[in-house]
Amino acid sequence: MKKGQKLWTREELILTLCLYYKLPFGKMHAKNTEVMQLAKGLNRTPGSIAFKLVNFASLDSDLQKRGVKGASNVSKLDRTIWAEFYQKWESLVLQGEQISQSHLMTEFVQPDERLIDPKAVGKDTEVIRKQRVNQHFFRKSILASYDNTCCITGMQQPQLLVAGHIKPWALDKQNRLNPHNGILLNSLHDKAFETGLITINTDYYVQVATEIRQSKDKKLTSFFLPYHNQPIILPKKYLPHQEFLAYHHNERFKG
Predict the structure, then answer these.
(1) How far apart are CA 15 and CA 138, in angstroms?
(2) What pLDDT shows up at residue 115?
(3) Are residues 98 and 187 in the same domain?
(4) Is residue 95 situated within a structural domain?
(5) Do 101 and 175 have their domain in common?
(6) Which of 211, 212, 239 is nearest to 225 (CA)?
């Protein structure tokens, strides 16, 4: 360790790992606003946070499959934290939020009273807050994975993009925060995906239901037919797992 440097703590690494999952690889740099905010909270330089993010990238098998390499100077504690939380999304988010509140005196998600039932108290409030934090983490990780791009149309307006679940939230508690169970679509195609009017097969091609393909409504078909049997824009991280796509195709798609 160089003179003047301080050792990383477990808590600091957990918070940095939480940020890692919410950033595209190309935005893990010192000038990124979120990197600077975390650096300020941890009393570290933005450069040190950015370098640690790239350390984590070197351990990410999703990036390795794309030939993307991170920094080689990975510490033993880096590897330990990565192994402890790899694919254990809910545990990571829970610990990250607890650390954030106790050490930085802030939440992952800024309070939004519109999302909380004013009659909810005690345990109900905790449940709602946890859901909000989890949903925020999931959305950020999916936006990062798809680089803020609808995987069907290529739309890049964040306000119109929905980070949806391939296998529904209500049916698979274990994979609620798993980004491999996520897909980024614009709001129209998200609704069509949710209701089974479109699907994505295990070869990552879009399929449109017969109901739309045979429709005489030209305005309707214009939004869907150009994408029928066309490949999706693949994410840069967290490729959708085929088991989730197969479930949607076999159980939700109207054919």
Answers:
(1) 15
(2) 35
(3) no
(4) yes
(5) no
(6) 212
Pair (15, 95) in one structural domain: yes
Q: Which of 68, 29, 96 is nearest to 237 (CA)?
A: 68
Please state, in angstroms and rounded to a whole number, the distance separating the CA atoms of residues 80 and 57: 14
| pLDDT-above-70 percentage for the chain | 86
Residues 100, 19, single domain; the answer is: yes
Tokens 């449940």 label which residue? Answer: 127
Structural domain tally of the chain? 2
Q: What is the pLDDT of residues 208-226, one digit of tens each?
A: 999 999 999 999 999 999 9
Q: How many residues does the structure list for the chain?
A: 255
CA atoms within 13 A on the CB side of 211: 9
Whether 127 is covered by a domain: the verdict is no
Per-residue tokens: 41: 């909270």
Find the distance separating the first CA and the last CA of the chain, reported in whole Å.
60
E strands in the chain: 161-165, 182-186, 198-200, 206-208
Residues 9, 10, 12, 17: is their CA dihedral positive or negative?
Answer: positive
Q: What is the mean pLDDT of residues 115-123?
A: 42
Which structural domain range is residue 17 located in? 10-108
Find, among 161, 136, 134, the residue nearest to 147 by Cα.
161
Could you tell me if residue 118 is inside a domain? no
Out of 87, 108, 129, pick the residue that ends a domain.
108
Give the pLDDT band of residue 98 (cuts 50, 70, 90).
confident
- pTM, rounded to two decimals: 0.82
